[in-house]
Specification:
One of its GO terms (molecular function) is actin binding. InterPro entries: Coronin (IPR015505), DUF1899 (IPR015048), WD40/YVTN_repeat-like_dom_sf (IPR015943), WD40_repeat_CS (IPR019775), WD40_repeat_dom_sf (IPR036322), WD40_rpt (IPR001680). The protein is mainly beta. It has one helix at about 315-324, and strands at about 25-30, 40-45, 50-55, 60-65, 70, 80, 85-90, 100-105, 105-110, 125-130, 135-140, 150-155, 160, 165-170, 180-185, 190-195, 200-205, 210-215, 225-230, 235-240, 245-250, 260-265, 275, 280-285, 290-300, 300-310. The strands form seven sheets. The chain has a four-stranded antiparallel β-sheet, covered by helices on one side. Strands 7-8-9-10 form a four-stranded antiparallel β-sheet, with no helix packed on it. Strands 11-12-13-14 form a four-stranded antiparallel β-sheet, with no helix packed on it.
Length: about 325
C-alpha cells in the first residue's frame, strides 16, 4: 500500500504586508512636478530623499534628510541648475551624497549634496554632461564601477560617462529605432537590458556596442514597457497585452524566444514601474491605480510568480519602503 504525500508550496513571504505610515511621519505640501513622464518622482538612499518639484523658468528637485517629516516649506532650498524641467534623478550607489539629474534641457548634471542637506539653493553642478540632442529621461548608475553613469535620451541614444572626468566613454546610437522606455544594468554591470517603443526587449553589451539578444514584441500592447534584471540574471518585464491588460513576464537571457512565465494583472492605462530588491528577491510594482508586492520563486525547474500583498501606496511610498 502506498501513500502519496501532498505537496503544498509555501512562500516565506506569505505574511508580507504593507502598512501606511501615520500622518506625522509623512511629507506634506510638496509641489511635485506636473511634467508628464513615466518615471518615479522621488528616489531615496540611507541619508536623503530627493523629489522632483515644480519650478518656474527651469527645473528643480528637493533634497531632504531621510528623517524629515511634516509640512515642507515652500521656501525650502532646491537643486535648481537646469534650464528646463527635470525628468529623472538617481542617487549614486557608491556615494550617498552624490546625485545625478536628467532634464528636458538635454543635459545631465551631477551634484554633491552636503551632509545635513541644503542650506541654500544649489545651482552649480559638479559636472554637466552634454551629448544628447533631445531631452534626457533615463539615468542608470553602474552597480559596481565608481563614477560610471549611463544616460538615455529621446534621441534614441545610450551614453556611458565617467562623471569623475566628464568624459563620454561609450556611445550607442544605432541600437534603438525609437524612443527608449527603460534601461537596467545586470548585477555585475556587464550588460544592460532595454525596452523600446518598437516593443522589443534587448540585451546589450554597451562597451562593445553590440546587441546580444533581441525579443521582438515582448508585450503585444502599444503602451510603454519596463524591464529590470534580477539577481540570477533573468529579466522581469512589465507591459500590456493586445487587449490592454497589464502583464508581467519573466525571461531567461540565454533564450528570449519565449517567456518563462507570464501573468495577467488587470486592465488599466497606468504603466507598471518595477522596483527590485535583490536582498529579498521581491519586486515592488507601482502604477496609477495599482500597487502590489510580487515575489518570484523558481524550484524544480519551474517558475512561480505570486502576488503576496496589495496595498494602496504611492510610488513615493514604495521607493521609501525599498530603501528602508
Amino acid at each position: 500500500m502506498s501513500f502519496r504525500r501532498a505537496v503544498v508550496r509555501q512562500s516565506k513571504f506569505r505574511h508580507v504586508f504593507a502598512q501606511a505610515w501615520k500622518a506625522e511621519h509623512c511629507l506634506d505640501d510638496v509641489r511635485v512636478t506636473r511634467v508628464t513622464w513615466e518615471a518615479p518622482l522621488c528616489v531615496a538612499n540611507p541619508k536623503f530623499i530627493a523629489l522632483i518639484v515644480e519650478a518656474g523658468g527651469g527645473g528643480a528637485f528637493l533634497v531632504l534628510p531621510l528623517n524629515k517629516s511634516g509640512r515642507v516649506d515652500q521656501n525650502t532650498p532646491t537643486v535648481c541648475g537646469h534650464a528646463a524641467p527635470v525628468l529623472d534623478v538617481q542617487w549614486c550607489p557608491h556615494d550617498d551624497n552624490v546625485i545625478a539629474s536628467a532634464s528636458e534641457d538635454c543635459t545631465v548634471k551631477v551634484w554633491q549634496i552636503p551632509d545635513g542637506g541644503l542650506k541654500a539653493p544649489m545651482t552649480e553642478a559638479v559636472v554637466t554632461l552634454e551629448a544628447h540632442s533631445k531631452r534626457v529621461g533615463i539615468l542608470a548608475w553602474h552597480p559596481t564601477a565608481l563614477n560610471i553613469l549611463l544616460t538615455a535620451g529621446c534621441d534614441n541614444m545610450l551614453c556611458i560617462w565617467d562623471v569623475g572626468t566628464g568624459e563620454l566613454v561609450y556611445q550607442l546610437s544605432d541600437a534603438h529605432p525609437d524612443l527608449i522606455y527603460s534601461v537596467c544594468w545586470n548585477r555585475e554591470g556587464s550588460v544592460v537590458c532595454t525596452t523600446c517603443k518598437d516593443k522589443a526587449l534587448r540585451v546589450i553589451d554597451p562597451r562593445r556596442g553590440t546587441v546580444l539578444k533581441v525579443r521582438e514584441k515582448a508585450h503585444e500592447g502599444t503602451r510603454p514597457m519596463r524591464a529590470v534584471f534580477l539577481s540570477d540574471g533573468k529579466i522581469l518585464t512589465t507591459g500590456f497585452s493586445r487587449m490592454s491588460e497589464r502583464q508581467l513576464a519573466l525571461w531567461d537571457t540565454r533564450d528570449l524566444s519565449e517567456p518563462m512565465a507570464v501573468q495577467e494583472m488587470d486592465t488599466s492605462n497606468g504603466v507598471l514601474l518595477p522596483f527590485y530588491d535583490p536582498d529579498t528577491s521581491m519586486v515592488y510594482l507601482c502604477g496609477k491605480g495599482y500597487d502590489e508586492v510580487v515575489t518570484l520563486r523558481a524550484e524544480f525547474g519551474t517558475v512561480h510568480m505570486s502576488i503576496v500583498h496589495e496595498a494602496e501606496k504611492s510610488i513615493q511610498s514604495m521607493e521609501s519602503c525599498r530603501i528602508l
